[in-house]
Amino acid sequence: MDNRFILRRAIDTDNVTLAELNQQTFIEAYVEDLAIPFSEEQLQSYFRTSVSPQYFAKKIADSQQSIWVVEDKTSDELVAFANVGRCEIFHPDSRIDEDGEIYRLYVRRNYQGYGLGRWLMNVILSWFEEQYPRRPIWLGVWMGNLKAQNLYRHYNFYIVGDREFDVGGYKCHSKIMRRDSFSS
């Protein structure tokens, strides 16, 4: 990986920057790239409840989860992150609290193409192997986000179902993807 970037675990003081990064990458991915017609009120409601500094403070403090961030050393900015932990996806085959889940993995648009998503995936898959040995890993990805789905397919995730995802009252349709357990 380029020496320009540092990958590290999130620390307590990253919560505000993580909230800002998540908001920025969410707008880039879903509003600008995928043209989902969220209203400003829907976005602000979602950001207040699901992407706030308080939200990330709780995630960072949760011993059952982990957040990794990628920092650009040239600008001292966080440019990508992944949040993982115990499975919270409801699916007939999922085992809540036994399986793992990728909650979020985002890379700022102008940093895509540097391999940061793959770097994060390799790190979090190692974490899952330690925390949830021989258990499936789950994630939800918006149905129109083919770029993300292709990244996950590269890591042997496959689509197993659908679900709705609420963004401030706007119902998004997502694909549920699963990666089978690690071999022993």
UniProtKB/TrEMBL annotation:
Keyword Transferase among UniProt keywords: yes
Name of the protein in question: N-acetyltransferase domain-containing protein
GO molecular function terms noted in the UniProt entry: acyltransferase activity, transferring groups other than amino-acyl groups
Species this chain originates from: Adineta steineri
Gene3D superfamilies given in the database record: 3.40.630.30
UniProt keyword RNA-binding present: no
Transmembrane segments: none
Keywords: Acyltransferase, Transferase
